[in-house]
Design a protein that fits this description.
Layout lengths: L1 E3 L9 E7 L5 E8 L5 H17 L7 E4 L3 H10 L4 E4 L1 H15 L10 H22 L4 H14 L4 H12 L2
Helix pairs in contact: 1-2, 3-4, 4-5
Length: about 170
């Protein structure tokens, strides 16, 4: 589930709901135009989805993938309390990369030389590779090992580690 906004002529959010089959193919489940992206709007939309699913004798979703839209996640938890919410890897890495660039986390100098810019980009790429590895961990042990590696390698980047922990790792 993902909401787009300001992409239609009315500039209102559109919640796009998709499903996947066991064969890995995707299909559209529904589209919901909402007045805004508030808890109440998401709750209304998810309740309407549940009503539609009940009418068609479709079972509740076991897993829903979102982009960390907290209002959507809260509505899902209320309407489908047993479902698992996963974060979309693409959205997570895109948001972390945007944070790194916005906050200039790996910036070496104000007036960078080409060599310094390349060094900054290499640090950024290494960090993002480690985060991607963390995200795709298949066991708790692997996840914990990779997380400890990030914490050790970037121990001097306290604000970055706090952002990562508070925004993406402690939902």
């Amino acid at each position: 589930m993902d909401c787009t906004y300001k992409t239609n002529r009315f500039n209102i959010p559109l919640l796009n709901i998709m499903g996947t089959t066991a064969l890995g193919t995707s299909f559209f489940v529904g589209f919901i135009f909402m007045s805004s992206e508030t808890n109440e709007d998401y709750l209304w939309g998810i309740k309407e989805l549940k009503t539609l699913m009940r009418g068609e004798d479709i079972c509740d979703p076991a897993v829903v993938v979102t982009d960390r839209e907290l209002a959507l996640m809260n509505a899902l938890k209320e309407v489908f309390p047993w479902q698992q919410n996963l974060l979309c890897e693409w959205h997570v890495t895109k948001a972390i990369l945007a944070y790194i660039k916005r906050e200039r986390v790996f910036r070496i100098a104000i007036n960078q030389t080409d060599e310094q810019a390349a060094e900054e980009e290499a640090k950024q790429d290494k960090f993002m590779a480690q985060v991607s590895g963390l995200i795709v961990s298949t066991t708790v042990n692997t996840y914990q090992t990779r997380l400890k590696g990030i914490q050790q390698d970037y121990k001097y980047y306290i604000e970055l580690l706090q952002y990562l922990a508070n925004t993406w790792l402690n939902l």
